[in-house]
Design brief:
This protein is an alpha+beta fold. Helices cover 43% and strands 20% of the residues. The strands form six sheets. Strands 11, 12, 13, 14, 15, 16, 17 and 18 form an eight-stranded mixed β-sheet that branches. Strands 19-20-21-22-24-23 form a six-stranded antiparallel β-sheet. A five-stranded antiparallel β-sheet has the order 2-1-5-4-3. Strand 3 (150-156) and strand 4 form a beta hairpin.
Length: 879
């Protein structure tokens, strides 16, 4: 404890530590700047020297090319002179020399030689007495004799020349003219003048370097020559292999140079000398040394000033930070009802414009978000206490209708009475297995199981060949009847019935009434186990098939009922449907019995506990609406809970509409966002379309509004932001919702909102306009935009209009428009301005009211162009 106390007593304050650290950082920065500057100056000087060398090499090449071109021009001028050709043809050496001397003063060449076609001298300006000298073995002359033209460096008695050999002809070849320019100090000065680098030209006759031209002084020239004589390996590369040597090491020459050695090549490409380009590092660094000195002085002054200012800055900066620390500690304890900042221009943390001010404003925004989250959780939590549990009853699909159907009744005689010798559990287990077998047979023949009444089942067959399919199902049901004394009895009757939901109890039931239903009961009394009884109407449908197969069924009058009926034994039914039956279409495809048929019961009212498509286990009913019924189900493949929406088959009998729904569900599946209820899959079970979705245990916004009229400001603000975030995710992948309303926004117990039900969504951009039928309005009229109500083309701004109405209702508890009829309501959406939100809630913030009213503009162009901009403006509001 003593050590700890002592260490705390000697600990430095945060302000002092900031002061020391700042001073150290400034010192390090200045020192680093000086070091970096020194390194950069050295590097820059080297680069400048290297650039000068590269420039010198380029200038030398250009200068050499210009000399060769000028010599060729001189040679062409001589060749074009008739007098020259005449003198050469006559071998008039004196006249040729006079002409060369006269023209040489004007053209500026340093020597010229006229040669005969064999390479022997006719006349030579530098050696007038060399007439007849054989130069055919010289490289330049050999090249000219072979190619009629040559250019290269000519070495003569230790001197170097740029030389060109050109042919001279007059109908036939008279000889060659060789002209040259000497490589001298003037040439070196011209190169230095352009490139800025010193240069020396060195001849190397017999391996003994000799400087023939240079821009260096005598001492440096002698020093350079001495160093070159000691660099045997470098000279071998240069003169033996003709290699260019960059950054040659010539440090012994008395001054820090960067050098570039380039070979001078004769006409055959063999080095006869070389050039040395030199750049002085001291010269390049002279200016940079002044910069280094000035930077060092400035750095020392900066360190002193920074040390004085850092202490005061640290103390001033830490004052608002201490307030932020206190606020953060309070927030950690759960106290979010405080405000760190102050209006801009004051001394509060959030009133500043620097990073501390930004931190204060960010902290205020964080506290606002936490207040919104806390208020939403408390609000939803309180309402969730009264949330009704999922109903365990069954949902009834369909709507009342009169329909022409064929009914099949199965009576399982073996379960008509209890057997005292066996307990209830084995009997019920066997009964369940028998129900599954019978229902599978009905499903396999595309029938629909309507009801299970005790040990009797009632099924319905619709569509083409219904009688044939019903007889096929009967054969499957009676498959083992010959060995079973308690075999089922099957009865078939046809006619018009009324079917649909019947108001009864809390949820209602599905009913089916009519003549065929009564017929089934009376016909069943006229037969025994293992038989199939046909009503006259069913027989009439099958009569042509029987006659085609050679079967004659005699009608009989019933004992209980006076109507005519037809009875088939089990054996007859099996013969009709086995193998290659003569009755086309009755035979069950080979290998497809009960095992191949779906075990799914085709009850229109799906009971909890049912297994749908061998995958979804129905747990309970979550609710029902205009499009169908939503179940809570377990996906046995993924071992996860899902919401299974079974759609009303009557609504989607049109295959075009069904395909459109499939394509739109595919769009909804692309949306992955925390504020969007995930859509997993779309399919059909027994002809009933379904959508599987993410399961969320929560309450809808409609439920909240029904309970409390309007939401608290902080809770409503959070919900509005989440609605925009989810809708923005949908728009980001190109999907419109088209049905934004409180019923389609569900809130989890934690207060997180999820946008759901993309059942009528469509792409924002469509290749083919007018997908929605003319005169057909999709969505809920209270929340539709004017362009939707008028049947026009819509885009994402229609969803923004609907979002504005939802925001209006969240904060005011009312809708912006109300009318006694739907037509009057739609006209108000199209023509009338909305009532001001403050007429329902006087305390609404002005900025929030402006946001809502902008969403509700009649013209789409006056609304928010994107939902992200709407979300941004909502983010600017705080609880």
């Amino acid at each position: 404890m003593t050590d700890t106390g002592t260490s705390r007593g000697f600990s430095l304050s945060l302000a002092t530590r900031i002061f020391l650290v700042t001073s150290l950082l400034v010192a390090l920065a200045v020192g680093g700047a000086v070091a970096v500057t020194y390194w950069l100056t050295q590097r820059t000087a080297h680069r400048a020297a290297e650039k000068a060398l590269e420039s010198s090499s380029s200038v030398q090449a250009a200068f050499q090319g210009e000399r060769y071109e000028r010599l060729r021009l001189i040679s062409r001028l001589f060749a074009a002179d008739p007098a020259v050709a005449a003198y050469v043809e006559k071998r008039d050496t004196g006249s040729v020399l006079d002409l060369l001397s006269e023209r040489g003063k004007d053209l500026g060449f340093d020597f010229a030689i006229f040669l005969d076609p064999e390479g022997k001298v006719i006349a030579r300006t530098d050696k007038p007495r060399a007439v007849g000298q054989d130069l055919s073995r010289r490289t330049l002359i050999q090249k000219a004799l072979a190619d009629f033209e040559a250019a290269g460096v000519w070495q003569e008695e230790g001197n170097l020349y740029y030389a060109v050999a050109q042919p001279l002809s007059k109908g036939s070849l008279l000889g060659f003219l060789v002209t040259g320019f000497a490589i001298n100090d003037l040439s070196a000065l011209e190169v230095k003048k352009i490139s800025g680098a010193d240069v020396a030209y060195v001849a190397d006759p017999d391996g003994q370097p000799r400087v023939v031209a240079t821009t260096l002084g005598r001492p440096l020239t002698e020093s350079l020559l001495a160093v070159l004589k000691t660099r045997k390996q470098m000279m071998d590369k240069l003169m033996g292999r003709g290699q260019l040597i960059p950054r040659a090491d010539l440090s012994d020459s008395g001054e820090p140079w960067i050098s570039l050695l380039s070979p001078l090549l004769d006409a055959s490409g063999k080095p006869v000398g070389f050039s040395v380009a030199l750049a002085s590092l001291d010269k390049e660094l002279a200016d940079f040394h002044q910069i280094e000195t000035a930077l060092l002085l400035a750095g020392l002054i900066s360190i002193l000033l920074a040390s004085l200012l850092s202490f005061g800055l640290a103390r001033r900066t830490l004052a608002p930070v201490r307030r932020l620390v206190a606020a953060a500690e309070a927030a950690r304890q759960g106290d979010y009802d405080q405000k760190v900042g102050a209006p801009a221009g004051t001394h509060g943390a959030a009133g500043r414009t620097d990073e501390v001010g930004q931190l204060g404003r960010a902290f205020d925004d964080l506290l606002s978000d936490l207040r919104e989250k806390r208020d939403m959780e408390v609000y939803v939590g309180e309402l969730s206490k009264s949330l009704p549990e999922p109903r365990e009853g069954r949902a009834v699909l369909g709507h009342p209708q009169v329909k022409e159907v064929l009914l099949l009744a199965v009576e399982l005689h073996g379960y008509g009475a209890l057997r005292p010798e066996s307990g209830p559990e084995p009997m019920l287990d066997r009964f369940g297995a028998e129900l599954a077998r019978v229902s599978a047979a009905i499903t396999g023949a595309r029938g629909h199981l309507e009801a299970v009444l005790g040990h009797r089942l009632l099924a319905r067959f619709d569509g083409e060949r219904r009688a044939v399919r019903a007889l096929t199902a009967s054969a499957e049901i009676l498959k083992n009847a010959a060995e079973d004394p308690e075999a089922p009895l099957v009865v078939l009757a046809a006619g018009r019935v009324a079917l649909g939901p019947v108001p009864f109890g809390e949820q209602g039931e599905r009913g089916i009434v009519g003549g065929p239903v009564a017929q089934l009961d009376s016909l069943g009394r006229e037969a025994t186990a293992g038989e199939v009884v046909l009503s006259r109407e069913v027989y009439d449908e099958l009569k042509g098939n029987f006659e085609q197969a050679g079967y004659q069924l005699a009608p009989r009058r019933g004992l209980v009922t006076p109507q005519m009926l037809y009875v088939l034994s089990t054996a007859m039914v099996q013969r009709l449907t086995a193998g290659r039956s003569a009755i086309a279409g009755i035979a069950t495809p080979e290998g497809k019995g009960v095992e191949a048929a779906s075990a799914l019961s085709t009850l229109s009212g799906i009971e909890p506990g049912a297994i749908m498509a061998r995958r979804f286990e129905i747990l309970s009913v979550l609710g029902a609406g205009g499009m169908g019924v939503v179940y809570k189900a377990r996906d046995r493949e993924l071992d996860d809970l899902v919401a299974l929406k079974m759609l009303k088959r009557e609504l989607w009998g049109d295959r075009t509409q069904l395909e459109r729904l499939k394509s739109e569900i595919k769009l909804a599946r692309k949306i992955t966002h925390p504020n969007v209820l995930r859509t997993f899959d779309f399919g059909e079970i027994d002809g009933i379309p379904y959508i599987s979705m993410e399961y969320v245990r929560g309450v809808t916004l409609r439920y909240l509004l029904d309970q409390t009229h309007r939401l608290p400001y902080s809770a409503g603000l959070r919900l509005g932001k989440q609605l925009c975030a989810g809708l923005g995710a949908a728009h980001a992948v190109g999907v419109m919702h088209r049905d934004i309303k409180p019923e389609n926004l569900i809130l989890t117990p934690a207060g997180n909102a999820k946008l759901m039900d993309f059942g009528i969504a469509r792409p924002i951009e469509r290749l083919t306009p007018g997908q929605t039928q003319a005169g057909f309005i999709v969505g809920t009229p209270q929340y539709l935009s004017p362009e939707q109500l008028q049947g026009g083309e819509v885009d994402a701004r229609a969803d923004i209009y609907s979002t504005g109405i939802v925001l209006y209702e969240i904060f005011t508890g009312e809708l912006p428009f109300s009318a006694p009829t739907a037509m009057e309501l739609m006209l108000k959406h199209i023509k009338e301005p909305p009532r001001a939100p403050r007429s329902h809630w006087a305390e609404i913030p002005e900025r929030l009211e402006q946001i809502i009213l902008r969403c509700l503009e009649k013209e789409p162009g006056k609304r928010y162009p994107t939902v992200l901009e709407l979300q941004h403006d909502l983010e600017g509001l705080s609880a």
